[in-house]
Amino acid sequence: MTDTVTWEGSQMKREGFVLNLLCVLLALAFLGVVVWNVIALGTVTNFLTIDSLFLTVVFTLLALVLLINPIMSLRDAGVLRNPLKRKGAEVTAEQLAATTPAIAGSTGQAALPAARASVPATTVTKRTARTVPPDVENMVNRLKRSEENQS
How many domains are contained in the chain? Predict the structure, then answer.
């Protein structure tokens, strides 16, 4: 049984590699058609025709669509990183467990994550175990005092 699992795992890796290789080759072929189109036309006035622009846009779009799978595979393998993710935004499971309270026997006060460590310790926590910023706490206190004065 383990031989089958090992064989299937290696088979899947091989299929993924072949798929990525095929996608990259087709994308390069499409980009080659775009480059050939630009070079063959020669001048800008010949390039700015409906047919030439259509060919350029369609083949460039096809190349980009075909490159999605190899790029995602490289990102999943850890070769590429996400350019939109901030450097400090990665949270490990241990850090997540340390910042959230246990459900059973919780005191209702969660540990502050590193990004919120600058919030003063005098903040009030709600039943949802979220900290309240000082300015919101001041507004709540003012509303409570105004309600007490009206009564």
Answer: 2
